[in-house]
């Protein structure tokens, strides 16, 4: 593949990665915070399509939902959401109101009832992790970001979430899948 086509493929891959709230990990300057394990040489002779399929299988096994993938370009974007129990308790009271109700019944049986209710609880924020996997001719690069969003839709925290351990585990698992699966023709 020529250099011009490769650049076009990478740009198209970024375009299908979806919208993000806040700066994404693939933007300028983010590569400085990218651990070395998040970019590794493409050691096997497997096709780009096989690499992408192995990446999809591994991300899905870790609870990610695939949002976009292009087998020919070698790009995958995925995300997973995790509730953050207790974080919703920061700015909200444990109750949000008291209600009273009552009623009576006048037919065969006479009765009257009253009730008191206290409403409330916490709406926990959700952490949304996004992963982008780009399979190049010579190397594979994976980035991850995280946003914590409260129940009202406001972003509490957003940052690059590239972790050395995560990248080592995922890259090793993808390569293991490639070595243990026959090459698709």
Keywords, separated by commas or semicolons:
185 residues, two-stranded antiparallel sheet, single chain, alpha+beta, 6-stranded antiparallel sheet
Give a description of the structure.
The model is unreliable at 14-31 (pLDDT under 50). This protein has 185 residues and is of the alpha+beta class. It has helices at 3-16, 48-61, 164-180, and strands spanning 39-41, 65-70, 75-83, 97-105, 111-119, 126-135, 139-149, 155-160. Helix 2 (48-61) packs across helix 3 (164-180). The strands form two sheets. Strands 1, 2, 3, 6, 7 and 8 form a six-stranded antiparallel beta sheet that branches. The longest helix is centred in the C-terminal third of the chain and has 17 residues, at 164-180. The protein is 24% helix and 34% strand. The protein is elongated, with a radius of gyration of 24 Å.
The percent of residues in helical segments reads 10-25%
Strand segment count: 8
**In terms of per-residue confidence, which ranges show pLDDT below 50 for 5 or more consecutive residues?**
14-31
**Quaternary class:** single chain
What does the main sheet amount to?
6 strands, antiparallel
Shape: elongated
Structural class: alpha+beta
How many alpha or pi helices? 3
Beta-strand residue percentage: 25-35%
Question: How widely separated are the two ends?
Answer: 19 Å
Rounded radius of gyration (Å): 24 Å
| Average pLDDT rating | 78
Listing every helix as H and every strand as E from the N terminus to the C terminus, the arrangement reads: HEHEEEEEEEH
